[in-house]
Design a protein that fits this description.
With 80 residues, the protein is of the alpha+beta class. The protein is built from 2 helices and 4 strands. A 4-stranded antiparallel β-sheet has the order 1-2-3-4. The longest helix is centred in the N-terminal third of the chain and has 10 residues. The N and C termini lie far apart (32 Å). The relative contact order is 0.20.
Length: 80
């Protein structure tokens, strides 16, 4: 999982992170909010609401599902 975050930081720079709700039950945690990140290659922002569902066991994330506006991501990377 650590390698994923290293690769992510190579491509985007976090600018804003607004965590609006945290839901936890057992090993499952869901985070809901809004984030803005800059795509380093293009200088354009990704501004999207998100839901992040993780499963944590023994203090480590072993599942990570991010739901975001994939169209906004594509536009920030490729819209010319």
């Amino acid at each position: 999982m650590g390698r994923f975050f290293e690769l992510l930081q190579m491509h985007v720079q976090a600018k804003e992170f607004d965590l609006r709700q945290v839901i936890a039950e057992g090993d499952d945690v869901v985070l809901i909010g809004r984030m803005v990140s800059e795509v380093k290659q293009t200088g354009r922002d990704i501004d999207t609401a998100f839901a992040l569902h993780t499963t944590v066991q023994d203090g480590r994330i072993n599942r990570y599902h991010l739901y975001e506006d994939s169209y906004a991501v594509a536009k920030a990377y490729y819209d010319d």
